[in-house]
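To: structure subgroup
Subject: Chain for Friday's discussion

All,

I'm putting the inputs and outputs inline so they're searchable in the archive.
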Amino acid sequence: MKRVSEGITHYVGAVARKKRSKERRIGLLIDGPNILRKEFGINLDDVKAILDEMGDIRIGKVLLNQYASQGLIEAIANQGFDPIVVAGDIDVKMGIEAMEVIYNENVDTIALASRDADFLPILVKSKEYGKETIIIGAEPGFSIALQNAADTVIIMGREHLSGSEEEDMEV
């Protein structure tokens, strides 16, 4: 497990020290109701910037429940992501979308933004099929099981990094 970042609310450039690997083709799935909450202050542009430093985002989907506002849906689309609105809980749809990414030969890395341990089987199945895994989450409530199962962990949040923590970040 590699820890990439902890506690950033906007991209601070710490991952930029890594050589960009355009060979890494990333499929990103975001659990909207779990990650896009005001208390976390997570900006999709920051997630996109961090992953852009790690490779090429080929698929970017944000799953939302029926309570998502029209403004949120438009903002997600304007940032270049595919908003998918689901009636009810998004877990089943996330599993279906994840399997499509896992079977997609144009993607070699699956990035999952969620704090929910329900998605642990997605990471396990991704690894079975030879995919590299990235988990993006926020504290509190970020599943330890997800963090331990992923190849790379990105922790987002409201606190900013101190200078010493920035030096330890590698991908």
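Points worth raising on Friday:
The first helix runs from residue 32 to 35.
The domain at 2-167 is CATH 3.40.50.1010 (Rossmann fold).

D.
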